[in-house]
Design goal:
Blueprint lengths: L6 E5 L6 H14 L3 E4 L4 H7 L6 E6 L8 H14 L3 E5 L2 H5 L3 H15 L4 E5 L7 H13 L4 E3 L11 H11 L4 E5 L5 H10 L3 E4 L2 H5 L3
């Protein structure tokens, strides 16, 4: 199995530098990762650095709290695509998830999906560490109904990251209708494989190179 193509090679730290982003892209080319995942400011840089490669440019929208208005997320996503993003990982409105207003979640995701178009992969970050099992299931269903291509566990900026249990819940909720991305706290090949076994078909990790070099 080509584990490299599971990995979104990630650098989302607030103090990321051009040098760091350049290194990220060089590593992504070397290991032929699925994508690099960066903040929107760096999308044009990555788009240029990765020209001619198979590595996609992924960015984050409404990150990391998800509390922006839907209109703001729509604008941010459209601008990212104009700048060269192939994939967008948007944070759902976690407050509305906690309110169990799944119609809001569905509408917000649908707005962003319509804005970016069919060719762009849309992943929705649920921030599962803040949700109950029932909320994870309901949000996953709302996202896939709205046209999301993936549901994703975590930003990596909250109190915990991906768990096998959350991935299992998400996969059970969406079936084969969309992908599941596990991200946050995945540092070893063993951890990555446990997420894949649970149903993940994409892994977000800043430790991609270390994982690929494990014996």
């Amino acid at each position: 199995m080509e584990y490299n193509k599971f990995i979104d090679h990630t650098l989302l730290k607030p103090d990321a530098t051009i040098e760091g982003i350049t290194k990220l892209c060089q590593e992504a080319r070397q290991y032929d990762f699925m994508s690099v995942c960066v903040n929107p400011f760096f999308v044009p840089v990555c788009h240029k650095l990765l020209e001619g490669s198979t590595v996609k440019v992924c960015t984050v929208i409404g990150f990391p709290l998800g509390a922006n208005t839907p209109a703001t997320k729509v604008y941010e996503a459209k601008k990212a695509v104009e700048d060269g993003a192939d994939e967008v990982d948007m944070v759902q409105n976690i407050s509305m998830a906690k309110e169990h207003d799944y119609a809001f979640i569905r509408d917000e995701v649908a707005q962003v999906k319509k804005a970016v178009g069919a060719e762009i992969t849309l992943k929705v970050i649920l921030e599962t560490c803040l949700l109950s099992d029932e909320e994870i299931t309901a949000c996953s269903k709302a996202c896939v109904e709205a046209g999301a291509n993936f549901v994703k566990t975590s930003t990596g900026f909250s109190k915990a990251g991906a768990t096998v249990h959350a991935v299992q819940l998400m996969r059970a909720a969406v079936g084969d209708r969309c992908g599941v991305k596990a991200s946050g706290g995945i540092h070893t090949k063993e951890e990555m494989l446990s997420m894949i076994e649970a149903g993940a078909n994409r892994i977000g990790a800043s430790a991609g190179v270390a994982i690929m070099n494990e014996k």
